[in-house]
Amino acid sequence: KFPVMGVRWRSSLTLGEKEQVNNKNSEDGGNKEVVASCWGIKGEEVKKEDGTPWKWNCFRPWETYQADLTIDLKKHHVPTTFLDKLAYWTVKSLRFPTDVFFQRRYGCRAMMLETVAAVPGMVGGMLLHCKSLRRFEYSGGWIKTLLDEAENERMHLMTFMEVSQPRWYERALVFTVQGVFFNAYFLAYLASPKLAHRVVGYLEEEAIHSYTEFLKELDKGTIENVPAPAIAIDYWRLPADSTLRDVVMVVRADEAHHRDVN
């Protein structure tokens, strides 16, 4: 739910705010009903189609979907113009240090990839939002498309957090890479939206390659094919007995979709 007239449902509270609510409830002996805002208004109770309670605050049942696994994974935009070639070789140059740093630790590699991949959609959506406000014109639906892309990439991260434990220096690297990339992409989008989207398209091509290698390691047994996290089963509407391989398959299909959009 979005904030309405100052009301914030529990799904939009930060972790700290939730802890304050839970702590207050514990101090009161657990007899008082937990509420989602300082106005004392209870948030809407959401249930699954089978009537069981919905346990996720980061996404709702109507935001779930089934990924299109039939999408063409080999599609490639051949760089022809100067901007195409600039975008292509920029992305290729970024792949080398990533390969050196993560080697074949594809779980942590996926986490780092998603912390970066979730930035462009948010930056593009934000800038198009401001442009629409300045020019008093419609966005053609692109604002929502880009924000949905950013949210989808964020859910990829939420999923891989359940199966991979990054080391402290990898977490520190996320701060550095995200800070640099956000500002660089922001400036690039201001200079040339076409260049910015082309960069994302080639980044997604690299993501498809990385997840394909991830699948190869799972098939060889180098990486344990553990059960799929519960959050992934609900988000992609996967069967209850799905595994990590199934998750990587749907994530790769998402990346192919983002490639085509950009």
Automatic annotation (TrEMBL):
<dbReference type="GO" id="GO:0046872">
    <property type="term" value="F:metal ion binding"/>
</dbReference>
<protein>
    <recommendedName>
        <fullName>Ubiquinol oxidase</fullName>
        <ecNumber>1.10.3.11</ecNumber>
    </recommendedName>
</protein>
<dbReference type="Pfam" id="PF01786">
    <property type="entry name" value="AOX"/>
</dbReference>
<keyword id="KW-0479">Metal-binding</keyword>
<keyword id="KW-0408">Iron</keyword>
<comment type="subunit">
    <text>Homodimer; disulfide-linked.</text>
</comment>
<keyword id="KW-0809">Transit peptide</keyword>
<dbReference type="InterPro" id="IPR002680">
    <property type="entry name" value="AOX"/>
</dbReference>
<keyword id="KW-0249">Electron transport</keyword>
<dbReference type="GO" id="GO:0102721">
    <property type="term" value="F:ubiquinol:oxygen oxidoreductase activity"/>
</dbReference>
<keyword id="KW-0472">Membrane</keyword>
<keyword id="KW-0813">Transport</keyword>
<keyword id="KW-0812">Transmembrane</keyword>
<dbReference type="GO" id="GO:0106292">
    <property type="term" value="F:superoxide-generating NADPH oxidase activity"/>
</dbReference>
<dbReference type="GO" id="GO:0010230">
    <property type="term" value="P:alternative respiration"/>
</dbReference>
<dbReference type="GO" id="GO:0005743">
    <property type="term" value="C:mitochondrial inner membrane"/>
</dbReference>
<keyword id="KW-0679">Respiratory chain</keyword>
<dbReference type="InterPro" id="IPR038659">
    <property type="entry name" value="AOX_sf"/>
</dbReference>
<dbReference type="GO" id="GO:0009916">
    <property type="term" value="F:alternative oxidase activity"/>
</dbReference>
<keyword id="KW-0999">Mitochondrion inner membrane</keyword>
<keyword id="KW-0496">Mitochondrion</keyword>
<keyword id="KW-0560">Oxidoreductase</keyword>
<keyword id="KW-1133">Transmembrane helix</keyword>
<dbReference type="GO" id="GO:0098803">
    <property type="term" value="C:respiratory chain complex"/>
</dbReference>
<comment type="similarity">
    <text>Belongs to the alternative oxidase family.</text>
</comment>
